[in-house]
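Task: sequence design from structure.
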């Protein structure tokens, strides 16, 4: 058999060379179109549901959030495994689908079942889907360093500028911020002053919430021109919070600064980012599913 193939090849050199060139060309074309990945994506098709329930213990999160979600996701078409994890103030539900299932079809099915089960969750709790990425989508990480900015300022640059620039890059599913300090307005209330003015902490919270709002009204016409009427009330500085009126005491308006101190400080955090023994601020770029 082999001898016959050799005799035919010697007698048809042109066809053999033509076939060789054709195979080499096809091979080069295939190599140029084959994506190169240091870690080939062999992970399962999965959809992650994250639900925040601030301030609640893991047992409460399990009973009121994780359990209703996991039981509802068991009937999602194509779902093979449903895993629920409850932590302090947050719940994660992982739905793993059959091999070959289209990821975006699976995400749309999960959204349908979330809309159905959302009525069973506590008021104000909204489950959200994780990014359309996989377990090996962690493709790039970076840090922000500066001698002129502190960690809080670097985190603000990351959250409000750099993260959006990187999210717009084709193939990027998410840019997660890590480290630094998230700025927030903090009101340190003196309980003795609350007792003296007969004001509750809930009253202070409601006053701040109701004062941080813009009110839209109608329009009025004058000289053939319509003017839009607006009530500007969004908080923009520490002084705006200090001057919020929470009540009246003996005919005098009672403000936030009368019962406490308003400062600008870091949000509570449970982790940090370290580089060469020094705390830094940075981010992680997650690749979209199926991208090169």
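Answer:
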């Amino acid at each position: 058999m082999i001898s016959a193939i050799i005799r035919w090849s010697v007698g048809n050199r042109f066809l053999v060379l033509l076939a060789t060139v054709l195979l080499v060309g096809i091979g080069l074309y295939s190599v140029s179109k084959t994506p190169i990945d240091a870690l080939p994506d062999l992970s399962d098709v999965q959809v992650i549901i994250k639900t925040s329930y601030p301030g609640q213990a893991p047992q409460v999160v399990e009973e009121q959030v994780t359990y209703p979600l996991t039981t509802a996701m068991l009937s999602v078409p194509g779902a093979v495994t449903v895993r629920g994890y409850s932590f302090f103030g947050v719940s994660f539900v992982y739905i793993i689908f059959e091999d070959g299932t289209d990821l975006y079809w699976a995400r749309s099915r999960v959204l349908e079942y979330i809309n159905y089960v959302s009525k069973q969750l506590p008021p104000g709790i909204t489950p959200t889907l994780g990014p359309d990425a996989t377990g090996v989508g962690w493709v790039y990480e970076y840090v922000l360093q500066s001698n002129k900015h502190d960690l809080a300022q670097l985190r603000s640059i990351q959250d409000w500028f750099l993260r959006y620039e990187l999210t717009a890059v084709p193939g990027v599913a998410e840019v997660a911020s890590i480290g630094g300090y998230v700025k927030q307005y903090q009101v340190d209330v003196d309980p003795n002053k609350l007792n003296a003015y007969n004001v509750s902490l809930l009253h202070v919270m409601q006053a701040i919430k109701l004062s941080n709002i813009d009110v839209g009204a109608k329009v009025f016409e004058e000289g053939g021109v319509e003017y839009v009427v607006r009530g500007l009330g969004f908080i923009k500085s520490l002084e705006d919070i200090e001057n919020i009126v929470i009540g009246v005491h003996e005919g005098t308006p009672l403000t936030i600064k009368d019962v406490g101190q308003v400062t600008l400080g870091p949000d509570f955090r449970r982790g940090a980012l370290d580089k060469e023994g020094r705390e830094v601020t940075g981010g992680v770029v997650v690749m979209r599913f199926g991208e090169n």
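Residues 70 and 165 are 35 Å apart (CA to CA).
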